[in-house]
Amino acid sequence: MEQPSKNTLIRYFRGECTPAEIELVSLYLAMDVDQELVATCMKAAWLDEKNDAHLQVSEADLTGFKQRFYAKQIKLIPAPIIEEQYVRGQLYQFPVWLRVAAVLLILMGITLFTYNTHTVKSEFAKIVGEVAPGSDKALLTLGDGSTISLSDRSAGKLAMQGGLQVEKIGTGEVVYSGRTMVQDAGNVTNTITTPRGGQYRITLPDGTKAWLNAASSLSYPLKFKEGERRVKMTGEVYFEVAKAISSNSGKHVPFFVETDQQTVQVLGTHFNVSAYADEPAVKTTLLEGSVRIISRSGDVALLQPGQLALLTEHIQIKEADVDQELAWKNGDFIFKGETLESALRKVARWYDVEIDCPPQLGKLRFNGMISRSQPLSMIAEMIALTKVGKVTVKERRLIVTN
């Protein structure tokens, strides 16, 4: 794409660009750009604001300038507008003013909300208090009912189950190894559970990989049946299913994922299932392969890669915004036309906090992106900058008020 000139960048930070120039600069900034040039232009705009070319510019000065600049640009998007304009989850289908607002909020995740990694601590964090983000935490329940806290154990052997060695490897993942299973291994079930504020990865005995989001669980037998592989889950889990061939029939062995409301049948494929009890729908997003979804009411649907199945009373198939649906697995929050109440539910699970937000504010929609590795104060700051209301954190409660 065309790179804006230095003069255009400076005028952009002064707030003097035309709509066409704003669109060009916003899209340019959303890419991997020359950060030194951007910082130089922002510094020049700050000096113009102060009307003194000889002032010394500190990191704190630029941080404050960024906050004021983005706070002027960001507006909450009224729900009727976002519902009409948000098509197929693709940013370029928005009108110019809406694209600019979305890109600016995404930029906040890239720029404004990374400054806390420096020595200058956010003043906002001092006001609202600090809560650390979630981390790799899980509990492994063995077939005999005993439990192992995976966050407390170092890499190495954890247990022997059904003739298999359960091991935590250097990357923090749980794996099963060994070829000789005891005869009744198929009757032995293990369960991995993540708390609020936790996530974990595991490789099942058949080689299938699973990533568990916060407040999730996955139960599986040590030895799958000859003709099928079946697991049960709650919460949100991303699967990369290993292909398996039956030694008797020579056919592919299907893999089933059961939740309270549906069963997903797959062969070798990559997909994500979100089945939290406090969410209005069960969502299944397919990245690779094909899956069949069977609801408890008897509805059946086939998904193709890039599609999303929403299950409420019936199954609806939509085009998926894969980046948004898998943001949690990739270490981010991505909100595109999402209601504040929906975003806050995700925040609550990851930071293990309670949320207090008036219903009328919870219905408002906005766009934003921020790393899940940031402390809660950065999330609170993002919400506050949208001017939705006052944001405070008391102990482990995030409170949004008018």
Structure description:
There is one protein chain. With 402 residues, this protein is an alpha+beta fold. It has 4 domains: 1-57, no CATH class; 74-131 and 327-402, Phage tail protein beta-alpha-beta fold (3-Layer(bab) Sandwich), CATH 3.55.50.30; 142-223, no CATH class; 227-320, Jelly Rolls (Sandwich). 27% of the residues lie in helices and 31% in strands. The protein is built from 11 helices and 24 strands. The strands form 4 sheets. It has a 16-stranded mixed beta sheet that branches. Strands 4-5-6 form a 3-stranded antiparallel beta sheet, with no helix packed on it. Strands 21-24-23 form a 3-stranded mixed beta sheet, covered by helices on one side. Strand 14 and strand 15 form a beta hairpin. The longest helix has 16 residues, at 35-50. The radius of gyration is 24 Å and the shape is elongated.
